[in-house]
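ESCALATION

Customer reports they have been waiting on this structure for their group meeting. Please prioritize. Original submission:
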Amino acid sequence: MRQDQEWFPRDDSLEAPGVVEALVAEAEQGYEEPRAQFLGKPRDEEIEALRRIVFRVSADLREAAQRRADEEGRAISDLAGEALREYLRRAGAVRETSHDS
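Update from on-call: job pushed to the front of the queue and completed.
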């Protein structure tokens, strides 16, 4: 319901005054196109590439990472992924890819 429209209590009743009229008026105005876009199921390679790694860090490291992510306009997961790629690249465990900076 748009902000400029009157709000009705959620009592699960169409008996409340004005509810039916408001619903009719809303339907007569028409509805906006849905904003969600439905995409097909991702390929298996994409699913595999998006696997999560969950690990714990100290509060101060978490706070520092959040500050850095905020400064760069990025997510902490981006910073963590970049750091892990760099760590493994230096150890020779992975080769440089287009994902590396």
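Sent to customer with the following note: Residues 44-90 form a domain with the Arc Repressor Mutant fold (CATH 1.10.1220).
Escalation resolved.
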